[in-house]
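Input/output pair, single chain:
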Amino acid sequence: MSTPQSLVNQLAQVEFFAGMALPELELLARHAHAADHDTDEYLLQRGRPASGFYLITSGRVSLELDAPRGRLAVQTLGAGDVLGISWLIPPHTWQFSARAVKPVSTIFFDTAEIRQRAERDVVLHDDLMTRFMQLMAKRLHATRIQLLDLYQPPAYQGGEQWSP
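Output:
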């Protein structure tokens, strides 16, 4: 079992948290706990309440969206990746589902108090918003690329290829 200080040190080594102020890392560590997930277990399910986020420490997670033919994997996440943005944005419900494609270990951050604190602390709010909006932009780009690959029209006559 890790101590709060060892968790702070662990978080400081993760790219997503790089440069975060020590008081912010300590706040996150106070509201975190380790969790393990079996293959095919859903960590997030679209439409359900978003009450936190995950740092994946090992394993693989498929980020999925509902499509007419079932769930479509738009990105696969692994160790060092952060999962879950919807906790920060009203109405605080998951917009994607996320499924363990192999056993996964995570650190789960319960964000009820973190969100309340960020409402009172503009520096914390801005730091979290910046980090998670950058993450959202990265995920939207990955989703766009996945959808372009999936729905690319067949080659035009004359051998020309469609280009996004």
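The first strand starts at residue 32 and ends at 37. The longest helix spans residues 122-151.
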